[in-house]
Design a protein that fits this description.
With 31 residues, this protein is mostly helical. Helices cover 94% and strands 0% of the residues. It has one domain.
Length: 31
């Protein structure tokens, strides 16, 4: 159960990282 939870947390973290990278990239294009 703990491993599953950690894996889910890791996937959420990677999703946020990709989301923020995309956001920063888009903001960079607007500037």
């Amino acid at each position: 159960f703990l491993c599953f939870y950690d894996r889910k947390q890791l996937e959420d973290y990677y999703f946020l990282v990709k989301y923020y990278n995309k956001l920063i990239y888009n903001v960079g294009l607007i500037k």
